[in-house]
Specification:
By secondary structure, this protein is of the alpha+beta class. The protein contains 34 helices and 34 strands.
Length: 888
């Protein structure tokens, strides 16, 4: 079939409260779209509903607010971060700076198919589906009516009850009723529900606005209903007596569309657009007054239902090639808290997914059957995600059918598809193909869908013959450090970027075991897509094929053969020598030890295996924050005061050491491990007691932390904290007597030009944190951290170019001193004095920086014209060229 590539319009972002998840999901689709078959066309839907043909470099920003609206259009001194909703008068100008504003009628000239990565309003409710159908553009997922039902939980539950599905006790509160007489609604709820209950908005996803509580707590109940209606109440006395820190936290939560109201909002029925307007009103408010704030993006119906005691699961149902629905193996959500919240859903390592759910086979099949029954009842098509509970009395209670699913790498969507052998790129191709079948069956105009179906099937058939011509790359991930979960996320992202390329054939290899006895395990795809490193390790240690999964794979054989060409499901141990004989090169996606310490690099050098990053000698220095800064200090770099304290010395005379630290550094100070990254155990120490708690806990004997130890350092229940034999104490770098003080992070890349190695320093990113140090979420959770790229390196007297060139010159000199090769990330503070002096104070250098989808090194590479795949390709190319130079 002679035709150009099929143009896939990826619709992402949107106006809903899940816009950041939809933005990150669109990036996943963009990166994983098979480059042999499709051309990606990124169509960003802003929160005002505009379609913007997005310049590709903005796809790799951490959050929408990092680039839109553009900061140079916003008022000077603006407090907080905002979406375009707060500045609607800028919408056309803002859109023009990030791409091209397009009219919906243009879409049929730009794309052949619409892949919808949108969530919530204008994504899952049938509205955009209706628009696309009118334009004659086939789209992914379910049809219009199914989407409208899938969006409305209240409508779903009434249909399900009438069809005989098991349902919890339920009541509803309408917005008008709540605002007119909340007491009547509260009395009805407390009389109807005697045990724990769940309050949820009818038309939200990602657990937004959901609360679980006891009906006897009247104040908490009222607050929970307000939250589900996106209403906030605050009294004058509460505002005036609150601390500055409490006010900042409240404002931050209020501004967040996931946890609060977002802007613009109604303040006592007056529309306000910014934080300062809210603060001004509250500051002037009388103690006896109450301020009522309401979200513009609100809810009309809130559902109240009895809490379901049972095992929680999620099941993806897809349409098999024979037209029948096929339920993939249901996944149990193993969580410590009551609620599988936004953070646990989207940050790797914070929850555990067990696939299939740990139940007898008959029970799993009953779950699958009920999910397919509901899929057909609601008229879903292509794919859907159905959540529910399995109770102790063996009932299946389904409570949340969705016509779409989160498309982040750790989502159920890809997690369960991997169990039948489809990687993300292949599953996306399947979705496109099957959606064409769905649209063909629905469309009364009988448009030519067969043309593109034939195009896909023919290309899939011919593609298999070219796989052996690709470069084979072993991606090493996992390990035993406290950064192992991020390593899995990095390695998985590298795998996905290379899987959809024309040049590389990647294989995931898990580093299994401890410091003295690790081994390499080739991972089957379904293990790679497990949620975190500990899950992968457990699956390797107890490898078996569940009979239900074996049965599902049998059912899906034709599908898997067409889209994946077959799949491997067995883990296999590899010797070190196998990495050299079976692969053209390796990509080390490990963080911490081993990986960044030179140990593996030395082994690969001996076997002449090309690898990414710096050599063994350099890596052994850069992993140690003390050695790195001492070396730079010896070359006249400004470095902070440091002191390494050994565990044995500290335990011998604790109080003397504590007093010595206080005398040398004062408070506050920074305490951190010498050789861990990813913000692991980095704490701003306030006083002597805080230091004592930190030292006692990091030098503890037992691996597990007690609740008391967690409380002392304000650690979350699922937050890991390393046990170490040495601690690094550093003086706090402050902003005293300077015009500009900023924390930055900056990527570097080395390449060969005419046989010589050249160092490219990217434009720095400004790293903003909500706490004392950058958190794990801010570094790696899509939609959470704020990294402004390029950094706002300017003062009233000195412009960006003046400051940036000096910073980049310093960083290049540091890279040369340390002998960095390949690529790296440098974290530093920048100080600019009134006389124009620029000091770059380096904190640490990572020789194998995190390569997760949300990391800001991709933002920086994008400014240099490199997509993430291009950046990774350059890293791999340098590794091969370096090896060739060493052999010649």
């Amino acid at each position: 079939m002679n035709t150009s590539s099929m143009r896939i319009g990826i619709f992402f972002g949107g106006p809903s409260r899940e816009r950041e998840v939809a933005f990150a999901g669109g990036r996943t689709v963009y990166d994983n779209l098979d480059k042999d078959l499709f051309e990606a066309v990124p169509i960003f839907v802003d929160s005002l509903g505009q379609f913007i043909l997005l310049d590709w470099k903005y796809i790799y920003k951490g959050t929408i607010r990092d680039f839109y609206p553009p900061s140079d259009l916003l008022p000077e001194g603006l407090e907080g971060q905002y979406y375009i909703d707060s500045f609607p008068h800028l919408k056309e100008e803002a859109a023009g700076q990030i791409g091209r504003l397009i009219d919906p009628d243009e879409l049929s000239d730009l794309i052949d198919f619409a892949f919808l990565a949108l969530h919530g309003r204008y994504g899952e409710d049938g509205v955009i589906q209706s628009q696309l159908l009118h334009l004659g553009i086939p789209f992914s997922g379910s049809g219009i009516m199914a989407c409208a039902i899938g969006m409305d939980k209240y409508a779903q539950k009434r249909i399900m009850a009438e069809a005989g599905f098991d349902m919890p006790k339920m009541d509803v509160i309408q917005r008008k009723e709540w605002l007119n007489d909340s007491h009547e609604a509260l009395n009805r709820v407390t009389s109807k529900f005697k045990k724990r209950l769940v309050i949820r908005p009818s038309r939200q996803g990602s657990s937004i606005g959901v609360s679980i509580l006891d009906p006897g707590d009247a104040e908490r109940l009222k607050s929970a209903v307000d939250q589900a209606f996106f209403i906030e109440r605050i009294t004058g006395v509460d505002w005036h007596k609150s601390s500055h820190s409490d006010r900042q936290k409240w404002i931050q939560r209020l501004s967040d569309v996931k946890t609060g109201l977002g802007f613009p909002l109604l303040l006592n029925e007056k529309k306000v657009f910014t934080v300062s307007e809210v603060i001004d009103h509250l500051d002037d408010m009388d103690d006896r007054a109450t301020c009522i704030l309401k979200a513009i993006d609100s809810e009309q119906t809130v559902i109240v239902e009895s809490f379901i005691e049972g095992r929680e699961f999620s099941c993806i149902v897809i349409r098999n090639l024979d037209g029948r629905p096929l339920a993939l193996p249901p996944t149990e959500i193993v969580k410590k808290g009551q609620l599988f919240d936004y953070r646990s859903k989207y940050l790797p390592g914070l929850s555990r997914k067990e696939t299939p759910i740990d139940l007898p086979s008959a029970a799993i099949e009953s779950i699958r059957q009920r999910c397919t029954d509901l899929y057909e009842l609601l008229g879903f098509g292509c794919y859907a995600r159905i959540d529910g509970f399995y109770t102790e009395d063996e009932r299946v209670i389904l409570n949340d059918p969705n016509t779409t699913s989160g498309m982040l790498p750790s989502s159920f969507f890809f997690h369960q598809a991997a169990e039948i052998g489809l990687n993300p790129s292949q599953f996306i191709t399947y979705i496109i193909y099957t959606s064409l079948i769905e649209r063909r069956s629905e469309d009364t105009l009988l448009r030519d869908y067969d043309r593109w179906m034939t195009y896909i099937s023919e290309h899939l058939t011919s593609k298999e013959s070219h796989e052996d011509q690709k470069l084979k790359v072993a991606i090493i991930l996992g390990g035993y450090s406290f950064e192992r979960h991020i390593s899995v996320e990095s390695g998985r992202n590298i795998f996905e970027k290379l899987s959809s390329s024309k040049k590389y054939s990647p294989t995931p290899v898990f580093l299994h075991g401890g410091p003295a006895n690790y081994k390499f395990i080739r991972l089957p795809l379904n293990y790679l897509l497990k949620d975190n490193a500990d899950d992968i390790k457990s699956k390797i240690d107890h490898h078996k094929v569940h009979p239900v999964i074996a049965s599902i794979r049998k059912e899906a054989e034709d599908l898997t053969k067409l889209f994946a060409g077959g799949a491997q499901f067995e883990p296999k141990e590899l010797e070190l020598e196998d990495l050299g004989s079976n692969f053209d090169q390796v990509f080390i996606a490990l963080h911490g030890r081993p990986g960044e310490d030179g140990e593996l690099q030395a082994k690969f050098e001996k076997l002449q295996i090309p690898y990414n990053g710096s050599n063994a000698e350099v890596s052994s220095v850069t992993i140690n924050k003390f050695d790195t800064l001492q070396l730079l200090g010896s070359h006249n770099f400004p470095v902070t005061d440091q002191w390494v304290i050994e565990k044995a010395d500290y335990l011998y005379d604790k109080e003397r050491w504590l007093q010595s630290v206080e005398g040398k550094f004062g408070f506050p100070l920074i305490a951190k491990p010498v050789d861990d990254g990813c913000s692991s155990a980095v704490i701003k120490v306030r006083d002597l007691d805080h230091l004592r708690h930190y030292m006692d806990i990091i030098f503890r004997e037992n691996e597990e932390l007690t609740d008391e130890q967690r409380d002392r350092l304000s650690l979350a229940w699922n937050e890991e904290f390393p046990k170490k034999k040495e601690v690094l104490i550093e003086s706090l770098i402050d902003d005293e007597k300077v015009e500009l003080f900023m924390e930055i992070t900056c990527g570097v890349l080395t390449q060969y030009q005419n046989g010589d190695m050249e160092i490219q320093v990217f434009e720095p990113s400004e790293a903003l944190s909500t706490g004392d140090v950058l958190s794990l979420e801010e570094k790696f959770l899509a939609g959470q951290g704020q990294n402004i790229t390029p950094a706002r390196l300017r003062t009233s007297d000195y412009d960006y170019d003046y400051i940036s060139e000096r910073v980049k010159s310093d960083l290049k000199r540091a890279v040369e001193i340390l002998g960095i090769e390949g690529y790296a990330r440098v974290d530093a503070f920048v100080k600019v004095s009134s006389d124009g002096r620029v000091d770059t104070i380096i904190i640490e250098i990572n020789s194998l920086p995190g390569m997760t989808p949300a990391t800001c090194i991709y933002h920086q590479a994008a400014l240099e014209g490199m997509k993430p795949y291009d950046f990774i390709d350059k890293i791999l190319t340098f590794a091969r060229e370096r090896q060739q130079k060493q052999l010649s």
